[in-house]
Amino acid sequence: MKSLNNTLLLIGFAFSSGFLLKYNNFIIQYILPPVSTIGTLFLNALMMSVFPLIISSIILGMSKIGQDDYGRSLAAKVGGVFFVNSICAVLVGWLSFSFFQPFFQIQPPAIQINLATQEMSLFTDILLKFFPRNIFRALADGEMIGIIVFSMLFGVTLSSIDKSLAGSINNVLQGIFDTTLGITRLVMRALPLGIFCLVFDASVKINLEAFRSLGVFFIMVIVAIFLYSILWLCVLYGAANIHPKKLLKAIQSALITAFSTSSSAVTLPVALDCLEEKCGINPRLTRFMIPLGITINMSGTALFVSAAALYLARAYGHPMTLNAQLSIVFISWITSFGIAGIPSGCLVALMIVLHSLGITNEAIGLIIGFDRILDMFRTICNIFANICCSVIVAYGDGQKLKIS
């Protein structure tokens, strides 16, 4: 608890000092660059271990799925929970937009948009990313969906080859997982410094003028994330008798890490520790579900992309009929899969959706001014939803949880 309070105080100090000093020229010219560099170094040090961690854990998980009935049952449950969760996320984004729409005070820009949408081209581009021609290129570009598909195919095929050879490969992969997890935990010792640098940098760069003109949009996204989180807490309390206070206390370190780093991928090892050590969930479930979830079950991303795409489509004069809105929501749901869990990674998905609507990428400039702060809340939502999905699956498996 003392560590948590210290971390919250550090975040508050970094935010307040950043806001107070954002107009000081000396801070901007001489203090901000090295602080920003240290924050970036911290993120890079964590990210360099994330891909080996994700790939090894998914391959190990998939290689065990076909070995027994539990593995096949687990895969079906995970797929079902992820599907329902992502659908609910985009629907919450849509409903929030519908509620707040009368309060928007935006004038459509004086430009023409191409209303001939390009859904077929969009779906083709997304489908091609499922099977990258060069897996190393996909790794370098951070194309998560291709990496996930390759890892899953590798794991499934691994379970069908000679057992002695498969066992050797599994041992190597387990060694890679344990080693990269150890590297991540080593880097996490610098978390207080990293938190201060990242939060200070974000607070200094927040565009207050953009917030004044787009405050309703900002509030809409925050309210949507809050309501979505409350929905999950109600589900866990009603279905699994898990009290919200116990859950939040057990996963608080993962939520703080998610907020301060704005990266679902970086938060992965912290989330695993929370679920395995504090919630008492079987590592076989968590080490398959969480790495997979932070790439294809990005609830905060799906929610934000659907709400932001609807908002920008309205701002740029796109017809907002019911069918048009449902089409935007569906495209937002599709594009939310496989987005890299890095700061502001969901803006790539948003650009894809806007392109399908005939709206240029410059439209993102309307909301980019305070996206960094929204990204912090989106990342919390991503991690929180994946943790809740893991808890509900573990409860369905009959596991005895420490938070029950």
List the main descriptive attributes of the protein structure presented here.
404 residues; Proton glutamate symport protein; 0% strand
Order of helices and strands: HHHHHHHHHHHHHHHHH
Shape: globular
At CATH level 3, the topology is: Proton glutamate symport protein
CATH class: Mainly Alpha
What is the CATH superfamily classification?
Answer: Sodium:dicarboxylate symporter
Approximate strand percentage: under 5%
Mean pLDDT: 83
Percent range of helical residues: over 70%
Count of individual domains: 1
Number of strand segments: 0
User: Alpha-carbon distance between the termini?
Assistant: 20 Å
Q: How large is the radius of gyration?
A: 21 Å
What kind of sheet is the major sheet?
none
CATH architecture level-2 label: Orthogonal Bundle
Word description of this protein:
- It contains 17 helices and no strands.
- The chain is mainly α.
- It has one domain (2-396): Proton glutamate symport protein (Orthogonal Bundle), CATH 1.10.3860.
- Helix 2 runs parallel beside helix 6 (144-158), helix 11 (244-261) runs antiparallel to helix 17 (371-396) and helix 15 runs antiparallel to helix 16.
- The longest helix is centred in the first third of the chain and has 41 residues, at 25-65.
- The chain is globular and about 65 Å long.
- Mean pLDDT is 83; it is low at 110-120.
